[in-house]
Specification:
Layout lengths: L7 H7 L2 H8 L3 H47 L1
Helix pairs in contact: 2-3
Length: 75
């Protein structure tokens, strides 16, 4: 693709499984199954990252609350 003058965005998009499957599929049913499988794997990774961000936020908020509580008790 680079030889034909494709831009970087298109080349990056071709590396995605769903896009590559959609452009090389021979029939709609197999393309839909492949894209669905690729999207399901992305959902699992997104859920894990959202969980970790939520856990980190909870730890930060909990630490701030505990620190403020300890400060009021000490004074």
């Amino acid at each position: 693709m680079a030889e034909r003058g494709a831009d970087a965005d298109l080349i990056a998009q071709c590396k995605q499984v769903a896009f590559a499957t959609a452009t090389t599929a021979t029939d709609a049913t197999s393309a839909a199954r492949s894209i669905s499988a690729a999207n399901n794997s992305e959902i699992g990774g997104g859920a894990v990252s959202m969980f970790l961000m939520g856990a980190g936020l909870a730890l930060v908020v909990g630490g701030v609350v505990i620190r403020r509580g300890a400060r009021h008790v000490a004074t």
